[in-house]
Amino acid sequence: MLPRLSPLLRNSPMARAVSRATTPLPLPTLLPATTLSCLHSPSSLSFAPKPSNFNFLLLTNTGLFNKKFETFSQENYRCTVWASHRGYRKVRRRPEAARRSKEKDLELSVSICIEEGLPNDPEILSIAELLRLNVPTAMKLAFDSLKSSTFKTRDEAIADVGGFDSIELSVMLCNDEFIRKLNKEWRDEDHATDVLSMSQHVPGLDLPILMLGDIVISVETAARQAEERGHTLIDETRVLLVHGLLHLLGFDHEISEEAEAEMDKEEGVLLESLGWKGKGLIQSAYDAKTTINHHMGSSDDRMKEGSLRFYKPKFSYIFCDMDGTLLNSKSQISLTNAKALKEALSRGVKVVIATGKARPAVIDILKAVDLAGKNGVISEFSPGVFLQGLIVYGRQGREIFRSNLDLSVCREACLYSWEHRVPLIAFSNDRCLTLFEHPLVDLLHTVYHEPKAEIMPSVEHLLSAADIQKMIFLDTAEGVAMNLRPYWSEATGGRANVVQAVPDMLEIVPPGTSKGSGVKLLLDHLGVTVEEIMAIGDGENDIEMLELASLGIALSNGSEKTKAVANVIGASNDEDGVASAIYQYAF
């Protein structure tokens, strides 16, 4: 199993960051997480048959990763690492002839690291395991090439590796966000890139160890480039590895056209010798007629299918409203929103619906995009907060809270509806009840997917049918604002609350009930803290939920009161605001 690396660490697709120390660097002694057998192959460098250590480490023993580090416990990570410092005294090298008189055993110490921001994706773990085998082979062939070839433009600070007892190299896999920060810190270029090389070799310092340096690869950028170039992610990762390794060995395509041609040729030679697919990075860039901007990462890259798998979730739960939020102005869920929810679920994030709709209506809507059922967002066995009065379902879909409207308020609302011929819907468990037919009543079923309203013969029949959790008056937006809301805000007299989710509906709910209180009840039931959740909404009935969450996102189509309390204003519900929020803030 591979441990994680703490956030520390970024070269433009065709550049490198080289940090050359001027004084000896202290090197941390690390407890190896795993010791594996060495890779042995005959060459002009003699690799001893004794095992060499290829350590999967939380921290690498090179200067860049030594810049800052943390020690993690096994509660959160798969290994514990202790770090201490050891010094190397300067030693007098034996004369060249003496060194050549005896075959040299050269130990390669390779650290393959996975930055902690990457999830436990099986493909990433597989690539890391392959790199454990591939990197020493690539190093050996590259060293052989240095001895057997003459280069006009290469920096020869590293010449004869046979003069060292061991060579250390670290390779790190990360996502775009991480490499972008590193690129900004080390090169003052605020964009993501595919590979960075950081040399830690100190010319003239007489040490038994060659600290070759660090290669940092963004698997997210590599995945996009692999798709563009028609090969696999491991193929692209190997191409980037070769590019980064050659930079550490003194090749630099940026200094001149001759240097670029020389490095380009060496990339091709090395890839061919290794039997790896793909052209060198320089040649691939020319073939695609790309520029540096072509590789720059942006938040939009996260909206590409599969991109989120390179990010660990920032939140355990997403609480999401339906009308005006997950649903667009046509009361439909877009394929983009559906895809984002599925990708969040695939990353282990639990999505909980918090809505004024009845649970059957939500199941019916999400079933159309394959998000209902055991492995979806909603089912009869999933948690949820339903603002019908307030009904909260906990583990296994078990009801943990229910509040009903005061019977006197229900009676007055029914009489008002009958006398003024203003359509009214009473929500009772999974049923909808009304007093007369009306086109707006039908729309609640055909457009908003609520259960088809049952017409009751009288007010008394409706009130005696079952307990009522919520009542909704249906009218024009003007009628609600000018007549219904002012009247019922006063008429309820503290016996009920008056709220709005959409402009043309007025909801009457039990006092003290809100999505916020429902979400709090559910969090207590599940043992989840508010720091673990983000919430997305648009209406006034979402205000307390957004205030409660660690991150509250109001869509731009939302009410001004809701946007005023939100941490972030997102895109509108007609612009796939939920998807944008997930891609930008959940990971």
Overall strand count: 21
Shape: elongated
Q: How would you sum up the major sheet?
A: 8 strands, mixed
Going across the biggest sheet, name each strand in turn: 12-11-10-9-8-19-20-21
Count of DSSP helices? 18
Task: Give the termini separation.
Answer: 23 Å
* Backbone CA Rg: 32 Å
How would you briefly describe this protein structure?
34% of the residues lie in helices and 17% in strands. With 587 residues, it is of the alpha/beta class. The strands form 4 sheets. Strands 12-11-10-9-8-19-20-21 form an 8-stranded mixed β-sheet. Strands 15-14-13-16-18-17 form a 6-stranded mixed β-sheet, covered by helices on one side. It has a 5-stranded mixed β-sheet with strand order 1-4-5-7-6, with helices on both faces.
Please explain how this structure is put together.
By secondary structure, the protein is of the alpha/beta class. Helices cover 34% and strands 17% of the residues. It has 18 helices and 21 strands. The protein has helices at 96-101, 122-148, 176-187, 219-229, 233-248, 257-274, 281-287, 322-326, 335-346, 359-367, 407-420, 439-446, 459-465, 477-491, 515-526, 543-548, 560-565, 577-585; strands at 4-5, 27-30, 83-86, 107-115, 166-174, 195-199, 209-218, 317-320, 350-355, 384-386, 390-393, 399-403, 424-428, 431-434, 454-455, 470-474, 497-499, 505-509, 533-537, 551-555, 568-570. The strands form four sheets. An eight-stranded mixed β-sheet has the order 12-11-10-9-8-19-20-21. A six-stranded mixed β-sheet has the order 15-14-13-16-18-17, with helices on one face. Helix 2 packs parallel to helix 5, helix 4 packs across helix 5 (233-248) and helix 9 packs parallel to helix 18 (577-585). The relative contact order is 0.09. Residues 1-102 and 290-299 have low confidence and may be disordered. This is Haloacid dehalogenase-like hydrolase family protein. It comes from Populus tomentosa (Chinese white poplar). Keywords: Metal-binding, Zinc. One of its GO terms (molecular function) is metalloendopeptidase activity. One of its GO terms (biological process) is rRNA processing.
